[in-house]
């Protein structure tokens, strides 16, 4: 009798027994309750008692509790939310008192890279009326709404003398009373708004 087939059957039976054993162990440990993972609290609330349904759904927390600037939350352009990475890179920060020659740097840099085409002006009109017109009015002459307890100044008469860089940086960084809109708008959207403010179509 050839011993090879018998030896092969013994090896095969041993391999199957090993696989069954590993499978049973995996089932036992897989059925055991695993402790909830420790997720970063980007929202600054009790993650053990979520508000939405009272259950600690990991997948829901991953979608809701993201590293981002939350509505009405202040942030900076140098200290981004924990674990976040800006998709479009970081614009060079220009200090408010930085100068280029005898001029404030925010009045001269950066240069407008977006051509003032009809399409850009049309997009800028939408951006201006969405973010700026709420306080400054769609014609730039102010509105009945208040900005932090004070009326927003009429900017329409000043647009012809304010530089493109000044308008862009004002939207990017904000001011003493004006909030920054760098988080809500992209660089192209801000330049579109500048093109609109500098166009004959402004306020029409």
Which labels suit this protein?
204 residues; mainly alpha; two-stranded antiparallel sheet; 4 strands; elongated
Query: What is the H/E string?
Result: HHEEHEEHH
Global structural class: mainly alpha
Widest β-sheet, arrangement of strands: 1-2
Q: Mean pLDDT, nearest integer?
A: 78
Q: Percentage of helical residues?
A: 25-40%
Count of helix runs: 5
Taking the alpha carbons of the first and last residues, their distance comes to: 102 Å
How does the major sheet shape up? Answer: 2 strands, antiparallel
- Shape, principal axes of CA atoms: elongated
* Radius of gyration computed on alpha carbons: 30 Å
Bin the strand percentage.
under 5%
Q: How many DSSP E strands?
A: 4
Low-confidence stretches: none
Verbal overview:
The chain has 204 residues and is mainly alpha-helical. It is 37% helix and 4% strand. The chain has five helices and four strands. The protein has a two-stranded antiparallel ribbon. A two-stranded antiparallel ribbon has the order 3-4. A hairpin with a 2-residue loop joins strand 1 and strand 2. Helix 3 crosses helix 5 and helix 4 packs across helix 5.
Which helices and strands appear, and what pairs or packs with what?
Blueprint lengths: L2 H29 L26 H7 L34 E2 L2 E2 L13 H19 L9 E2 L2 E2 L12 H10 L13 H11 L7
Antiparallel strand pairs: 1-2, 3-4
Helix pairs in contact: 3-5, 4-5
What's this, in brief?
The chain has helices at residues 3-31, 58-64, 118-136, 164-173, 187-197, and strands at 99-100, 103-104, 146-147, 150-151.
């Amino acid at each position: 009798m050839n011993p090879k087939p018998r030896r092969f059957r013994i090896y095969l039976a041993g391999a199957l027994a090993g696989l069954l054993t590993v499978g049973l162990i995996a089932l036992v440990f897989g059925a055991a309750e695993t402790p909830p993972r420790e997720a970063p609290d980007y929202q600054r609330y009790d993650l053990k008692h979520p508000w939405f349904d009272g259950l600690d759904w990991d997948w829901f927390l991953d979608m809701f509790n993201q590293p981002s600037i939350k509505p009405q939350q202040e942030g900076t352009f140098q200290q981004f939310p924990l674990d976040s990475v800006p998709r479009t890179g970081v614009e060079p920060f220009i200090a408010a008192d930085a100068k280029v020659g005898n001029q404030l740097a925010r009045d001269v840099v950066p240069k407008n890279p977006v051509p003032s085409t009809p399409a850009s002006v049309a997009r800028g009109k939408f951006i201006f009326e969405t973010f700026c017109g709420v306080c400054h009015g769609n014609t730039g002459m102010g509105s009945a709404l208040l900005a932090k307890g004070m009326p927003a100044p009429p900017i329409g008469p000043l647009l012809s003398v304010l530089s493109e860089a000044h308008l862009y940086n004002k939207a990017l960084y904000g001011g003493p009373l004006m909030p920054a809109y760098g988080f809500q708008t992209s660089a192209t959207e801000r330049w579109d708004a500048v093109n609109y403010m500098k166009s004959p179509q402004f306020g029409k």
